[in-house]
Fold each of these.
Amino acid sequence: MEVSNGEGKNKTESETKEIVEQIPPEFAIKHPLQNRWTLWYDNPAGKKTTAEKWAENLKQIITFDTVEDFWRIYNNIRPASKIALGSNYHLFKEGIEPKWEHEQNKRGGKWVITVSKGKNPKFDIDNAWLWTLLACIGENFQEEDEVCGAVVSVRQRQDRVALWTKTATNESAAKSIGGTWKRVLEFSDSQIIGYQSHEDSMKTSNSFNNPNRYEI
C-alpha cells in the first residue's frame, strides 16, 4: 500500500495553476455581437391549426449576444435535421417575434430556399441553416437593419430555410440581401430563389405557397 505525504497534491495544484496562467487572456474574453438574438422553436405536431393555436406552440428558448454563447447553444441543441417533422427553429433579433403580424414583420417578406432530402450530401439542411445563422449574427448583409431573422422548417419531402426582411416594398434592399444570401449558400447564378411577402401569407394563411414578388 502506498502512503501519500501530500506532496503529490501540491504538485498537481501547482501544475494546474501553471497551465491556467499559460492560457492566453483573450481566450477568457467573450466577443459581443452587434445585435442580441433570440432562438425560438415550435412543433404543431403536423396538425393544421389557427394562428392562435400556433402561437401557443411557439416557445422562446434563449437570447444571446456573444459569439461564444451562440456556439454553446448551437452545439447543445438538436441539429435542424433531427427536430420533429413539421417543426421549426426561428432565430430573430431580440424583440421581434417570428410572426407575420408582428410590427417589425407585417410589412416585410422572406426569401425561401428548399432543400430536398438526400439529393446533395454536401448541401443539406444543417449546412444551409448554419450558414444562414452565421450570416445573420455576423452582420454579413449590407442592409442589416432590414434583416429580421431566419426560419428553418423540417418537412416530410423537403425542408426549407427562409430569410425574413422588414420591408417587402424595398426591392433594392430585398434583392441585395437575397444576393448576399445566395453567395453565402454558394448558389450559382442559375439557381433562382424567390421572395414572398408576409401580406400574401396572411391573406392565404399559407407560409410558402404564395407568388414570388421578386426572384434572383
Amino acid sequence: MYVIGITGGTGAGKTLALTSLKELGALALDCDKIYHELLLGSAEMKAEIESSFHGVTTDGAIDRKKLGEIVWKEPSSLLKLNEITHKYVTNEIKTKIGSFKEKGGKFAAIDAIALIESGQSKNCDIVVGIVAPVEYRKERIIKRDGLTETQALARIKAQQSDSFYEKNCDYIIENEYKTAVEFGEKCKKYFSSLIGGR
C-alpha cells in the first residue's frame, strides 16, 4: 500500500487534489469528512470534546458553529481540539486503509490540514503540500462556508504559513488557478506521473 499525504491550509485546494487521486484509483480519505462523521457517530469523542469545551453540545450533538467560534479565535483551543480528535481520526484511517488493502487496493491518499502536526504524515510514503495565494483562499472560504471576510481571514491566520509546508513536505503544488477544473487537471497530471511507475 502506497500512501500519499495531502496537506495545506483551508481553501488551498486539497479536496481537488484528493479527488484527482480518487479518479486515478486511490482510496481517498478526507480527514475533515471523517472527523464530521465521528462527531455524529463517536460518543467517546463527543464526550471528550464537551469536557474540554463546555457548552458546545446541544441536544446531544456537538454544535460545530459554537465549537468553531471558540477554536478559530484561540490557537491554543485549536491545538487542544486537534489533540482530542487526531487519535480518533487516525484509528478510523487505519481501519479504512486495512480494509482497502485486503480488497487488493494499492494506493491511498490522506487529506488533512494538520497532517504533519498530528503525526499522521509518518504513516505516509510521501507528503504533498498544496499552497495558494491568500486572496484566492479567502474568496473560496467565503463562498464555500458562507463566512465574512474577517472570519475567513481569521481561519487562514490560525493555520500554518506556506513556508511551513515548503519546509515539511516532499512536494509542493501551487494552486494559482481561478477555476477548479484547471487545478484538477494539473493535479491529475502531477499524480499520474508520481504514481505511474508503481
Amino acid sequence: MAAFGAAITSIAVVVDTNFYAEGHSLALLDIIRQPVITPLNSLLYNSQSANLALHGTHPHWQHFAVNLPQLLGPAILLLVQPIFNTTLISALVGTLILSVFPHQEARFLLPAVPLILSSVQLPRRGRRAWITSWIIFNSLLGILMGVYHQGGIIQSQAYLRTQPDINFAYWWKTYSPPTWILGDRNHNLTTEDLMGLKSAVLEDHICDWYRQHALGLDRKAVIVAPYSATFLDQFLDNDTSTANCLSLRKRWSTEAHLNLDDVEFGDDGVLPTLSRVVGRRGIVIYDIEWTGH
C-alpha cells in the first residue's frame, strides 16, 4: 500500500509541477528541487487569513448552522437518531476541521453529504410525507442553485462578448467568471477576479490601476457585481469633479441572478442580509468613468 501510494503521489507531483510550469519544459532535477505539491500548497494558502479574506470570510459556525442544513434539507431531521459509524464520524470530523477556516462555502461539504445520508434511516412513521418533502426540497434547490444562484454570470459574459468597446472587466463578489465564454474576446478583454475583496480597499485598487494604465488612454473598463453589493451605490453617477476616481454608470443588468455568496450574516446580521440579497437580486455591469483624480 505504501509503495503504490508513493508511486501515485510521485506521478501527481510530476504532472502538477509540469502543469504549473506554464509551458516551460522541466528537467527531472528541477522537479526534485522545486516540486509542486498541490494539497500542501492548498493547506498553506488556506491557513493564511489574509488569503481567505480575498474570497470573503464567514463565522465559524456557518458550516454546521447554515451549510449542512442547506445541503441535507429534510434529512437533517434524521440525524436525531443517526447510526454512529466510521462514515458519520468522518463526515462530522471533516466538517469540524473545515469550520476552523473562516471562508466557508456549502460546496466544501459535498463529500460529507453521501457519508451522512448513508448513516441515517428513513422514518418509520410519516415515511411518505418525508419522501414527499425530500422530492420537493431537491426540486426547489435544484432550480435555486442550478439556475438562479450565480445564474447571471453566464449572461453577463455573453453580453461582454458582444461589446467591442470594453477592454477591462473587474468581477466582484461572484465566483470566478468562466472566461472561455468570451471566445476570441479574450485577446483584447482582460478579466480580473476581485473575489471577495474588502469594500474598504476596492476603490483604491481600481483607482490605482487607472492611474497606472488608463490615464490618457482610450480604454473602457467595467465592474461586474451583484446588485446586492450596496457598497457600489455611493459611486453611481458621481459628480466627476469631486469623486476620487471611481464614478459608475449602470450599463446592463439582469434579475435572473441570486448571489448567495454575498451573504454576510456575521457582518450585517441575518434579516438585513436576507433583505439585501433577496430584495436586490440580480447582477449589474457598471461602466467605470475615469475622473483623472
Amino acid sequence: MRPVGAVLFDLDGTLVDSETHTDEAISAVVARYGVASFALPHSETRGRTWAHVADVIRRQTGIECHTSALADELLEYWTEAAADVTPIPGAADAVRAAATRKLKLGVVSGSPRSVIDSFLAKLGIGDCVDTRARIGGDAVSRSKPDPEGYLLGARALGIEPAETLVFEDSQAGLMAAKAAGMRSVFITCCASDIPGNTRLATASCTHYLTLPDGFWHEIAEGRLELAGRSFK
C-alpha cells in the first residue's frame, strides 16, 4: 500500500462523457467518402489518438486521404459535437478534492493538448491540474497502449511511476498504465468490456461519486488497499 503522490487522469470517458461523440464523428466523416454506416470496435477508438483512428479507417475502407488530413477532419467534427459534453458524475469535485489533499495532478489523453485545456476550463478545474503534466496525443510519438504518455506525465510531476495512480476508462489506457508500472482505477460508467477491462486494472469504480469517503486522504497516506477493490 505504497502512498500515492500523483494522480493522472485520462480525459474522454474518464473526466467527460465524450466517447459517444467519437463513434458519431467516425460514422459521419467516413460517410462523406461514400462509406455508409461505418463503425470501429471500441478497442480501436477508446484511448486512441485520432491519427491511430484515421490510419485504421484508411486501412479498412481504402479511403484515399492522407492520415493526418483525415485525423484533422475527425477531430474537427468531434470537437464541435462534444462542445457541450457532460462531465462524468463527481469528476470536478474529485479533482478538487485530490488537489486539496496536495496530490500532484495531470491529464494524459489521446486528444490534443488544446482539447485537454478546453475541457479542464469547462469543468472549472484548470487551476488544479499542472500545465506541465497535460500530455495530449500530439505530445507523444507512441499512443496508448504504449506507456509513453503516462511516463511523461509522471516525469513532469517529478513522481515515480510506483507512486502514481491512473484513472482510465479504456483497454488501451489501462494497458498503458500497467506497462508504465502504475496502479489504476477503471471508471466503468461509460466503458465497454467491463469484465475484461476490470482484470487489467488495480481497482474499479462506477464513477467518482462511488469512491468511499476519505479516498484521497487514504491513498495519499498509503492506508487504502486498492488491489481487487470495486467501488459501486
